[in-house]
Specification:
Layout (H helix, E strand, L loop, with lengths): L1 E5 L6 H10 L4 E4 H8 L9 H19 L7 E4 L6 H13 L4 E7 L2 H14 L9 H10 L8 E4 L4 H12 L1
Parallel strand pairs: 1-3, 1-4, 2-3, 4-5
């Protein structure tokens, strides 16, 4: 199964994805980690083209992992999925593998997201160095609503509750 984590920066996609993986739900492929490994700092662009390329590599890796391990769950993280074409690529890949897909959209209060982003920015604790509250607002202004089946998880709730909801949805 392919599980796509959607949501604005700072909404808790990565925390939830990693917690799900740690609880035995699958493996995480993170666009931001992939970008940081592939591109030397001088060549990191944070452009749509580079994001699309990293998503392509994530999907190819998901195929590589799922083909010999059809029961594996691959959690795709690091992309807001703010554009429908990004989700369409994931669904197309899942269908090509004849494997199910799920979308989990992480949401939280704007204040929570701002606080998380400012904390990560001050500690340089995230592999994507462009994450900021300004990026959150910019993506929020152009976010195309996800109008296909999905689970919305409010990450202002305790992590255990978020994990339980996501597990129930995926299983």
């Amino acid at each position: 199964m392919i599980v796509a984590m959607a949501g604005l920066p700072g909404t808790g996609k990565s925390t939830l994805a990693q917690a799900l993986a740690d609880s035995g739900m699958g493996v995480v492929l993170d666009k931001d980690v992939i970008r940081s490994v592939l591109f030397p700092p001088a060549y990191v662009e944070y452009s749509n083209e580079q994001d699309d390329f990293c998503q392509y590599l994530m999907l190819e890796t998901a195929k590589y992992l799922i083909k010999p391990h059809p029961s594996l769950r691959v959690l795709l993280d690091g992309r807001t999925l703010s554009r429908r074409y990004q989700i369409d690529k994931i669904i197309e890949t899942a269908r090509g593998l004849n494997t199910p897909w799920r979308i989990i959209e992480a949401v939280c209060s704007e204040e929570t997201a701002r606080h998380r982003l400012e904390e990560q920015e001050s500690r340089l604790s995230h592999p994507a160095r462009n994450r900021s509250y300004e990026l959150y607002k910019r993506i929020q202004a152009q976010f195309e609503p996800i109008e296909i089946p999905k689970l919305v998880v409010n990450t202002d709730d305790p992590l255990e509750r978020c994990i339980a909801a996501a597990r129930a949805y995926v299983e």
